[in-house]
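Example S7 (structure tokens).
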């Protein structure tokens, strides 16, 4: 057997170690632009609108008054200044259609039969005039530029995404998932070198926490219950190479449309290799941190004496010299105590302790491998996955484009986050180029954010983050309940909001405690309360819109009443802009229809504002309003 997955991954990602032919692994995604800090005490003054709503006004460095920000987000005229009357009517039509349950529930069937009845040419024309035109920017890098440029003129930048998706059946999706989450020969993994007893124990392990990081056919179609996120299924290495090329073409599109270095692209790690590796690495990370909690308890750190006592309590037989050597390796800061940052470092330097990562089994008292090893073919595939990530990152940096690594399911996410942090270590030395994504509906998100912020501070690299609520709630809850592990999701919507706001408060505290620009974050939310909370907290913490330390993000075609008023008030705002041929983005359009059905209250407000602006233009004789011919 070859070396363990953990050793393979962290040897390649160590900030001090080169991988394969001297190349470094790197991820790419966008980061928030920054400028020198200017106190915002003189930038803000509070006023009251005629309706009693609090409005924030801004002045630029020349003293010219900018657009006021109505934090009630009810100003229809301001929200749709960038839209023609035809675009407003189209939006109203699309949202009305998304409010009809029959059309949404059967949207795939309706689209399929419409294509057959109307023919390709007429079908594409109708789609461009309706759903496609509202939610998608265009078919290629050239056709998207008018929309991207128009949005930028009104203060809204773009995150480009080539949204072509293969619409495979659920059966094929499950088959692909089960195949890709097992070794190539489909034989059970064994430890290297495994004893017969250990193999038997491994086969008998059916605890929910172990099964959490095993693929289950019942949940093999990761699209089920998910409407707001794209899903990749592993086919073969050639498909991963194809995805790599698609990401690079997207980088080219961003570089061509945005020339000032503020552009983003989004990637998913499951597009670049076998998900089996993410499962195994996630199990390593979670098991290792659970092991730390056994030592530290509620103290969050432990001394050498604590280490000795706990090993004895576990019944672990270890020599005095080995124990001292372990503790010395763990105590990276040499302060006589080990905290979680020290503990995690062992995953990087474990090769000094031996060929394998081994830990005491607290039940048997025996030393055993923490995770199964990889076969030769698997190790080669893992290396290719890391090299693809490296190539994307290097190409993005070369093109002056930033990289956001999207979050995925909790059984993949520990590995995804860890690999993204390794990329930050290497490539975020001068500015935030690589951004990790944190899902605030997870119960442990606050501790994860705090841990990574502290790590970036200790190791002197810039911290970049995208903060989201989360896209996999229903799926995660059902899987946890079925398999039997603890539900990782916050119990209520309000609990998730509180989690989101706590994370943002911690990030803003860190922004003010560190040199300006070392922490950059995107608030990716369609929730008005969260956006309002962030704007107000920015003011309280002296973080101005022009500082470009915190930006906001929403999907194209949704929440324009939030995005454009923010952008015109000089906040940094992005739209997630999908593009691709009409017939190849139908799965994306289907998910947008489902998503809007699920947030009827928000859609109701958007419809009301669109109708309000349409009537205003009719009354004022502005039906031929052209946003290109008026000052932005």
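Recovered sequence:
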């Amino acid at each position: 057997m070859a070396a363990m997955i953990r050793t393979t991954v962290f040897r390649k990602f160590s900030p001090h170690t080169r991988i394969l032919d001297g190349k470094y692994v790197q991820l790419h995604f966008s980061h928030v632009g920054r400028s020198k800090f200017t106190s915002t005490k003189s930038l803000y003054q509070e006023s009251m609108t005629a309706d009693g709503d609090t409005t924030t006004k801004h002045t630029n460095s020349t003293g010219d008054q900018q657009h006021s920000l109505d934090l009630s987000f009810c100003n229809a005229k301001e929200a749709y200044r960038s839209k023609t009357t035809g675009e407003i009517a189209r939006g109203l039509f699309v949202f009305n259609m998304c409010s009809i349950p029959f059309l949404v529930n059967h949207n795939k069937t309706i689209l399929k039969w419409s294509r057959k009845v109307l023919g390709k040419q007429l079908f594409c024309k109708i789609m461009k005039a309706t759903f496609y035109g509202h939610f998608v920017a265009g078919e290629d890098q050239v056709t998207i530029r008018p929309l991207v440029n128009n949005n930028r003129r009104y203060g809204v930048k773009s995150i480009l995404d080539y949204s072509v998706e293969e619409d495979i059946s659920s059966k094929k999706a499950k088959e692909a998932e089960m195949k890709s989450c097992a070794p190539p020969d489909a034989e059970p993994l064994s430890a290297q070198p495994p004893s017969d007893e250990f193999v038997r124990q491994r086969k008998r392990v059916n605890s929910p926490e172990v099964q959490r990081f095993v693929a289950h056919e019942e949940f093999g179609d990761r699209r089920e219950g998910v409407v707001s996120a794209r899903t990749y299924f592993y086919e073969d290495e050639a498909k991963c190479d194809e995805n790599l090329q698609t990401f690079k073409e997207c980088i080219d599109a961003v570089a061509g449309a945005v020339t000032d270095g503020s552009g983003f692209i989004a990637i998913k790690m499951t597009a670049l290799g076998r998900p089996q590796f993410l499962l195994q690495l996630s199990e390593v990370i979670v098991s290792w941190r659970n092991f730390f909690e056994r030592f530290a308890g509620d103290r969050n750190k432990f001394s050498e004496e604590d280490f000795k006592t706990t090993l004895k309590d576990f019944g672990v037989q270890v020599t005095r010299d080995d124990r001292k050597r372990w503790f010395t390796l763990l105590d990276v800061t040499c302060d006589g105590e080990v905290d979680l940052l020290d503990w995690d470092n062992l995953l990087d330097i474990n090769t000094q302790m031996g060929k394998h990562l081994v830990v005491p089994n607290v039940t048997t008292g025996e030393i055993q491998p923490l995770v199964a090893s990889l076969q030769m073919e698997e190790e080669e595939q893992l290396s290719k996955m890391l090299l693809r990530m490296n190539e994307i990152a290097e190409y993005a940096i070369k093109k002056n484009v930033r990289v956001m690594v999207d979050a995925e399911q909790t059984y993949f996410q520990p590995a995804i986050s860890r690999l993204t942090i390794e990329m930050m270590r290497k490539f975020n030395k001068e500015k935030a180029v690589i951004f990790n994504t944190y899902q605030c509906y997870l119960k442990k998100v606050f501790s994860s954010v705090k841990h990574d912020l502290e790590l970036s501070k200790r190791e002197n690299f810039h911290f970049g983050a995208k903060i989201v609520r989360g896209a996999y709630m229903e799926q995660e809850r059902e899987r946890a309940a079925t398999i039997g592990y603890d539900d990782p999701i916050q119990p209520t919507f309000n609990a998730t909001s509180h989690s989101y706001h706590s994370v943002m408060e911690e990030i803003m505290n860190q922004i003010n405690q560190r040199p300006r620009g070392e922490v950059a974050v995107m608030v990716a939310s369609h929730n008005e309360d969260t956006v309002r909370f962030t704007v107000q907290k920015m003011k309280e913490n002296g973080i101005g819109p022009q500082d470009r330390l915190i930006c906001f993000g929403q999907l194209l075609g949704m929440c324009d009443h939030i995005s454009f008023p923010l952008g015109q008030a000089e906040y940094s705002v992005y739209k997630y802009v999908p593009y691709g041929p009409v017939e190849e983005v139908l799965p994306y359009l289907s998910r947008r229809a489902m998503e809007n059905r699920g947030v009827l209250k928000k859609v109701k407000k958007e419809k009301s504002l669109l109708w309000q602006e349409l009537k205003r233009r009719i009354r004022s004789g502005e039906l031929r309003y052209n946003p290109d011919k008026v000052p932005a």
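Notes on this example. The longest strand covers residues 572-579.
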